[in-house]
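Human:
Class, as today's exercise, you are to examine the entry below, and be ready to discuss the fold:
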Amino acid sequence: MRGFSLVELSIVLVILGLLTGGILGGQALIRAAQLRAMPTEVGRYTTAAMTFRDKYFSMPGDMANATAFWGTATSCPGDFTTPATGPATCNGDGNGQINAWAETWRAWQHLANAGLIEGSYTGVQGTSTDTTYGIAGQNMPASKAGTNSGYAFVWVNSSNANSTSYFAGNYGNTLRWGAENGVDQGALRLLPEEAWTVDMKMDDGKPGTGNVRTYLNSIRPQCSDSDIGASSAYQLTLKVRGCNLVFVTGL
């Protein structure tokens, strides 16, 4: 019984190398496609919210007379933990700001009720004890950019943005990408290079300025390199998933 010759072994190694390269190349192409979907997703949901505002004269989730259109959910005006079984919903406070997590989750239900986005949503937080818990496909639309990832509309008070988690600047009703516990700042994050790629496609490629931003370096030390918006940059050499994105929608 003879063994493999050096030529045969070399051919096998070359084939294995080609297969490995093909797999890695395919994974890179899949990831690139997932990241390319984010601008489309953000545009879709921003447009839906704008259309809702024009039709109902309110922001989704914040709408003070939503129950007049779709009925009153059994959990109103409680802690917003009882999932919807139909279009019945709860009112917001009508101040123009999607400024409470209850309004964040009701926003997707309101948009679905209005026929402006696909799917149906519970309108409530993902767990009874965590107001920020997002579950893709249940209380928020799923994103193609990560397993169980999705979006949350959350108001940011621009006057004190720099003193908390955000770079200085105007924000308003932002759209944030993340997942599960603390959908806006959760454990699911992007590589700095991935965040930069999305930022470049949609904006200026800088984490602290424009309409696509991340959190301060003091909050996300493995994403941006400083807390000064005008000079901050993504830490592109880091191969650590340290970035969440905040989309300034103009709403």
